[in-house]
Amino acid sequence: MTTESASPGSSTGNETAARLGAGRSAAVIIASTSAARGEAADTTGPILVDWLRSRGYDTPDAIVVRDGEPVGQALRALLVDTPEEERPRVIVTSGGTGLAPDDRTPEFTAELLERQSPGLVYAMWRKGLEATTSAVMSRGVAGVRGRSFVINFPGSKGGVKDGITVIDELLEHIQTSVEDTTDHGPRV
């Protein structure tokens, strides 16, 4: 296996996408009160769903919920109420990571994770800082529950695109690590 990165549109990218998501599902949760009420369009869900589908994951349309407790309910439905063998392998949220009183996505996510991976969020902050200083206001978390990887993306299109740029090249390694299918070899 090579470590070269290819775009999803190239032949190598298509082979990687097929291998990466084959037989696996993913889910996208959008935390947006205005989109849940029908007062605004969900602009980040389609981007995330298209990305995961391009990587070979069976991904339904985004689940759009109000900020706050509905995010926690959606996460619990996927990570607790769903039988373990049917849980999505990747769950991406967008929104609810800021400083508003109902921005509670990180708190609801963190309480369901078994292990966190703060370096992934740090890498997304660094990428976001290339375009805007407000990137560091995102309080997202990332981590694992069972064989599911969960990460919080910001609610902006720019933040989502930055997050995809960072996570896309790591997604295969994340998946093989979570599934414990990586041959680590001898420790030296």
TrEMBL record:
GO terms for molecular function: molybdopterin synthase activity. One of its GO terms (biological process) is Mo-molybdopterin cofactor biosynthetic process. It comes from the Bacteria. Its EC number is 2.8.1.12. This is Molybdopterin synthase catalytic subunit. Residues 27-174 form the MoaB/Mog domain. Pathway: Cofactor biosynthesis; molybdopterin biosynthesis. InterPro entries: MoaB/Mog-like_dom_sf, MoaB/Mog_dom, MPT_Adenylyltrnsfr/MoaC-Rel. Keywords: Molybdenum cofactor biosynthesis, Transferase.
